[in-house]
């Protein structure tokens, strides 16, 4: 039996806030675009942003680890990256001159890869970096939220050598701590603190 569930508005990005404002794209983790991201997007939009939340898994999501593993096994990363690139284009087409990306888990990797192309003006990742085989300059400021056990030092050293400004925050919480839909993952205190830090970072980088 499949561990996957259907989500509303499959394959189409959710939008929050006023078009024309600075944009922020939120890229979901391995579990897909679950309901907590609607609350995240609404709260972020209230801080002055036009928020876009794409669906990288074509209408599917998971609420258990087995389902997330199934989604990761079947994801087409080329399609996912193209979907993210299109989402970054939404706020720019609406008049935004600056766009940031917040990526969680798998979405964090994709966010950093998009930044390598110059598509983003700021990036925040949760429990995600790029591997040694995904080298390249990231020409915008980066904030990293590190879960317990994350090994980010090599990545941070590499991008700093290329001149990328990097801010790091560590949490005594497991990977997935911001996923409020999956009870066994979420750490409310860590999630709230990471959100506040992400808002401050994006305001500093994207708002005049």
TrEMBL record:
Keywords: Hydrolase
Signal peptide: none
Domain Dienelactone hydrolase per the UniProt entry, residue ranges: 22-204
InterPro entries per UniProt: AB_hydrolase_fold, Dienelactn_hydro, Dienelactone_hydrolase-like
Molecular function per GO: hydrolase activity
EC number: 3.1.-.-
Domain of life: Bacteria
Annotated TM spans: none
Family matches, as Gene3D superfamilies: alpha/beta hydrolase
PANTHER family noted in UniProt: ALPHA_BETA-HYDROLASES SUPERFAMILY PROTEIN, CARBOXYMETHYLENEBUTENOLIDASE-RELATED
Protein name in the entry: Dienelactone hydrolase family protein
């Amino acid at each position: 039996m499949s561990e996957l569930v259907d989500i509303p508005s499959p394959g189409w990005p959710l939008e929050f806030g006023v078009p024309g404002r600075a944009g922020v794209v939120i890229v979901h983790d391995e579990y897909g675009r679950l309901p907590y991201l609607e609350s995240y997007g609404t709260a972020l939009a209230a801080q002055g942003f036009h928020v876009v939340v794409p669906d990288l898994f074509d209408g599917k999501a998971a609420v258990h680890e087995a389902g997330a593993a199934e989604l990761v096994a079947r994801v087409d990363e080329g399609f996912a990256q193209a979907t993210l690139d299109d989402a970054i284009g939404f706020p720019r087409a609406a008049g935004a001159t600056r766009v940031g990306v917040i990526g969680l888990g798998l979405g964090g990797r994709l966010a950093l890869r998009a930044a390598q192309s110059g598509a983003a003006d700021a990036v925040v990742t949760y429990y995600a970096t790029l591997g040694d085989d995904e080298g390249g300059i990231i020409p915008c400021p980066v904030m990293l939220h590190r879960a317990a056990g994350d090994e980010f030092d090599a990545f941070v050293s590499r991008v700093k050598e290329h001149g990328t400004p990097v801010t790091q925050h560590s949490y005594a919480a497991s990977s997935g701590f911001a996923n409020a839909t999956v009870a066994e993952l979420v750490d409310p205190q860590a999630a709230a603190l990471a959100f506040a830090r992400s808002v401050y970072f994006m305001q500093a980088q994207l708002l005049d």
